């Protein structure tokens, strides 16, 4: 049975841990709000970009672009977007479980985030490149990832590019999701973003009531300029969603850890009081017994 001194040490240790997890919870909550606001702020731009591209890309005719070329999938590229740090519940483990489902014999990987890089190295999969991104992702970071993937697709090294990331639904719900990045298929305009039923980067809107656009100089030139930018923006929006998911998961995990620590402190305090009371009772019995023996 532990002594009262041991229990006091455990209570002190758990209190110190609770202070750390509480501080991490507050920091994650602050970062989560900023990440959500950044992702929501990109939704109007994504909606308008898709509304412009949809009638252009789906108009048929002689319009074509290398990023829309459909080939037999012999080699595929998977961009895995994870976090750099842990302490965010099952976010990364759920993501890596999905990544492990891809056949390593015909899959090449690009990672954004240290946890994904560690997983690819540990499982000895083919890692083409690894990137990092900040707590507040920059468009230049997304453009670098997209450029590398587009070059591999354009050079024929891969026939399809997918993105695996954790999609944000709410503070309590984040789910891993795979989105096809290349080749760009049928574009359906929609309001992509946090909490929407459609995934970021995919495009969907009811064609009824769509605005008719006049393209200058030509539709081909506009398509050639907008499609690469659309790919860059899809990656950027996915980074924003992944970061919002990470901070949300970390905040919830740290809150649960803090609550568990408080419960442990409560249980240890009760055990300490019981043990202390038992020791007092034992000492009183010893004193009483000694007094009776002397009399």
Explain the overall architecture.
This protein has 295 residues and is α/β, with parallel strands linked by helices. Helix content is 55%, strand content 12%. The protein has helices at residues 4-41, 43-57, 91-99, 114-122, 139-154, 219-294; strands at 76-81, 107-112, 127-131, 160-168, 174-182. Strand 2 (107-112), helix 4 (114-122) and strand 3 (127-131) form a beta-alpha-beta unit. Residues 189-199 and 201-209 have low confidence and may be disordered.
Produce a short descriptive summary.
The protein is an alpha/beta fold and 295 residues long. Helix content is 55%, strand content 12%.
The strands making up the biggest β-sheet line up spatially as 3-2-1-4-5
Q: Average the pLDDT over all residues and give the rounded result.
A: 83
What is the gyration radius calculated from CA atoms? 28 Å
Which class of the largest domain in CATH terms? Alpha Beta
N→C terminal distance: 35 Å
CATH superfamily of the largest domain: ATP synthase, F1 complex, gamma subunit
Roughly how much helix do the residues carry, as a percent range? 55-70%
What is the SS-derived class? alpha/beta
CATH topology of the largest domain: Pyruvate Kinase, Chain: A, domain 1
> What's the total helix number?
6
Beta percentage is 5-15%
- N-to-C order of helices and strands: HHEHEHEHEEH
Based on DSSP secondary structure assignment, what is the total number of beta strands? 5
Q: What is the count of structural domains?
A: 2
Main beta sheet: 5 strands, mixed
Oligomer: single chain
> Uncertain runs with pLDDT below 50, 5 residues or more?
189-199, 201-209
């Amino acid at each position: 049975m532990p002594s009262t001194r041991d229990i006091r040490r455990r209570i002190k240790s758990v209190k110190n841990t609770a202070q750390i997890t509480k501080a991490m919870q507050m920091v994650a909550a602050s970062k989560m709000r900023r990440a959500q606001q950044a992702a929501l702020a990109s939704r109007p731009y994504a909606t308008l970009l898709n509304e412009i591209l949809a009638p252009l890309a789906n108009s048929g005719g002689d319009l074509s672009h290398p990023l829309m070329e459909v080939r037999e999938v012999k080699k595929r590229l998977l961009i895995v977007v994870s976090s750099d740090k842990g302490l965010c519940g099952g976010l990364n483990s759920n993501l890596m479980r999905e990544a492990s489902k891809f056949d390593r014999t015909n899959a090449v990987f690009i990672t954004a985030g240290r946890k994904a890089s560690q997983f690819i190295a540990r499982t000895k999969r083919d890692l083409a490149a690894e990137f990092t991104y900040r707590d507040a992702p920059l468009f230049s970071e997304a453009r670098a990832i997209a450029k590398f993937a587009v070059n591999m697709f354009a050079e024929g090294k891969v026939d399809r590019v997918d993105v695996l990331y954790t999609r944000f639904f709410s503070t309590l719900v984040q789910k891993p999701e795979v989105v096809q990045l290349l080749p760009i298929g049928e574009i359906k305009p929609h309001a992509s973003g946090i909490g929407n039923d459609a995934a970021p980067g995919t495009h969907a809107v009811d064609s009824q009531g769509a605005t008719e656009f006049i393209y200058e100089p030509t539709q081909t030139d506009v398509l050639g300029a907008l499609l690469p930018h659309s790919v860059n923006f899809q990656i950027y929006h996915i980074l924003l969603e992944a970061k919002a998911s990470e901070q949300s998961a970390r905040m919830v995990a740290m809150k649960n850890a803090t609550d568990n620590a408080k419960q442990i402190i409560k249980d240890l305090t009760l055990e300490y009081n019981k043990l202390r009371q038992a020791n007092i009772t034992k000492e009183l019995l010893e004193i009483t017994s000694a007094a009776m023996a002397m009399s």
